[in-house]
Amino acid sequence: MKKNTFKDYKKALLEHYDTVKGDDVTGVLLDPTPAQMRDLCSLKIDGGLSKTDEELMRVFFETKKEDSLKLSIKRCNIDKFRPIISFIRRETDTDNRPRIELVAILIDFSPRPYAKFSGLKNETSKSKDSGRAEDENITDLSQTNKKQKTYSFKKILYVFLGLIGLSSLGYVVKDKLIPEKQCMQWQDDHYVEVNCLEEINGFKSSSKKPIKEELMNLEKIKVCDTTTFFEEGKAIVYYCKIDNDNVEYFNQPGYHPINGKPLKPITTYMINKYIKNKE
């Protein structure tokens, strides 16, 4: 009589992984990336963890009992998952127990953790078939897991779909109660985001425009003879003539927010005529 070894545990995990990766509703296990593995950990928490699984996760993520496990997962360096991915792809081996136990949790292997798995005794003999008997015992464990995986991954699917539903509901409520600011309006010397449907004194403002990200940084600026107008020979100040005596200046190309005229790159002629000669 002998107990299952840690090597047996890792072998059983890999066999179970081969069985369930194609049935994973999230698609993560089939071709995992570090970021996806981190997100799968968060999904596991949303689906509910046993006390043992939570303790094992806290060990892996180095999270204190009083701290939020989900927040630790969100903030963790995704490089922590690279050795795990290499292990399940059979590229490298590892005896790091927190990593192995996290694999067991993510693929919903049972029995876990290793302490429970090692308590399952295998029938052994001195015959040449003893090694084969050990392999068959591990295979039986994987077969047992096949029956359990369907419920487990359906549970994750329901949680995942539930989160999507709540998010969609949140967007609907947000749009109704707090309409998204999808328009912009010029105020003094810059654009601000505003609600497209908002009325001013009972009338809709005609100066509102759909938001254009490239214009949200447009600013009217004040210039003088010490202003830097060029960098590496290129204009970094733009202007628009309002009338024969008045010129307005801006920090980027575009169109004048009031009269719609194109903003032109500053020239030495304009600087000399309208800026230096007026001071």
TrEMBL record:
Entry keywords, A to Z: Membrane, Transmembrane, Transmembrane helix
Stretch list, region Disordered: 120-141
Composition bias type Basic and acidic residues, residue spans: 123-135
Membrane as UniProt keyword: yes
Ranges annotated as spanning the membrane: 156-173
Entry superkingdom: Bacteria
Protein name: Uncharacterized protein
Lineage: Bacteria, Pseudomonadati, Bacteroidota, Flavobacteriia, Flavobacteriales
